[in-house]
TrEMBL record:
Protein keywords: Hydrolase, Metal-binding, Zinc
One Pfam family named in its UniProt record: Lactamase_B
GO molecular function, one term: metal ion binding
Keyword Protease applies: no
SUPFAM superfamilies: Metallo-hydrolase/oxidoreductase
Name of protein: MBL fold hydrolase
Sequence ranges assigned to domain Metallo-beta-lactamase in this UniProt record: 13-195
Family matches, as SMART domains: Lactamase_B (SM00849)
C-alpha cells in the first residue's frame, strides 16, 4: 500500500510530498522547506513514522520547489533526481532567489536524471514518469496506477493550470501536456498538485475553466 503526507511550506504555499509504502522506504518530492521550523516539521514526521528516505525527486526546479533540496540531500544522504531539461531552471534559482527576498538558498546538484518511460522505484512501489513541459521545460509528473495517484507539480491544479509567463514556459506545451498526457489517465485518479488542494482527473476534464470540457481552451 502507498501512503502520502503533504506539507505546505514557504511563502509560496508550496506542497511538499512524502510517499512511502509498507516497507517504510520513502521518497521526498519537491521539498520546499525554507526555514528551521519547516525542516523540523519534515524530519520529525519522517522520524515518527520510522521511514527510510531513499530518494529526492523534483517535479521541476522553480525556486519554491527546491528550497529544501540541499537540506534533504545532506540529512538523508540520498540521490537527487531531476529531468535534465530543467537544469537551466535549477541553475537560475541562485540568481532569482534574492528577488523573492530569499537570501539563504543553498544549491544542490542533481545526481541522476528523470526520463519519461524510466520508472522511479522505492520499496515495493513503482512511479511512472511523464514528461509534461509547459510550466517548465523539464517538468514531470509521477504516477502510481495501483493507488490511482498523480503528483502533478505545477501543471494541473484544482480548477486551474500552471503559469506560462516564466522564462522557459510555453502555453501551447502546457495545454498539450494536460490534454495529451494527464487527461489520458483514469477519471478516478487523484491529482496532488504543487499548490492548493487535491482534485481528480475526471473533475478537471469536465470542469477546469482552462482545459475542461467547457473550458476556454477546450
Amino acid at each position: 500500500m502507498l501512503y502520502l503526507q503533504v506539507f505546505t511550506f514557504n511563502g509560496f504555499q508550496e506542497n511538499t510530498y512524502v510517499l512511502w509504502d509498507d516497507t517504510k522506504e520513502a521518497v521526498i518530492i519537491d521539498p520546499g522547506c525554507s526555514d528551521r521550523q519547516e525542516r523540523e516539521e519534515l524530519t520529525e514526521f519522517i522520524s515518527d513514522e520510522g521511514l527510510k528516505v531513499v530518494k529526492l525527486l523534483n517535479t521541476h526546479a522553480h525556486v519554491d520547489h527546491v528550497l529544501g533540496n540541499a537540506f534533504v540531500k545532506r540529512t538523508y544522504g540520498v540521490p537527487y533526481y531531476l529531468h535534465p531539461l530543467d537544469v537551466p531552471v535549477l541553475k537560475s534559482v541562485a540568481v532569482r532567489a534574492p528577488s523573492y527576498r530569499i537570501f539563504d538558498y543553498e544549491e544542490a546538484e542533481p545526481d541522476a536524471w528523470l526520463e519519461e518511460g524510466v520508472p522511479v522505484t522505492f520499496g515495493d512501489t513503482t512511479l511512472e514518469v511523464l514528461h509534461v513541459p509547459g510550466h517548465a521545460p523539464g517538468h514531470v509528473a509521477f504516477i502510481n496506477r495501483e493507488s490511482n495517484l498523480c503528483i502533478s507539480g505545477d501543471v494541473l491544479f484544482h480548477g486551474s493550470i500552471g503559469r506560462w509567463d516564466f522564462p522557459g514556459c510555453n502555453f501551447d506545451d502546457l495545454i498539450s501536456s494536460i490534454k495529451n498526457k494527464l487527461f489520458t489517465l483514469d477519471d478516478e485518479m487523484e491529482v496532488f498538485p504543487g499548490h492548493g488542494p487535491a482534485t481528480t482527473i475526471g473533475r478537471e476534464r469536465l470542469e477546469n475553466p482552462y482545459v475542461g470540457q467547457n473550458g476556454q481552451y477546450a
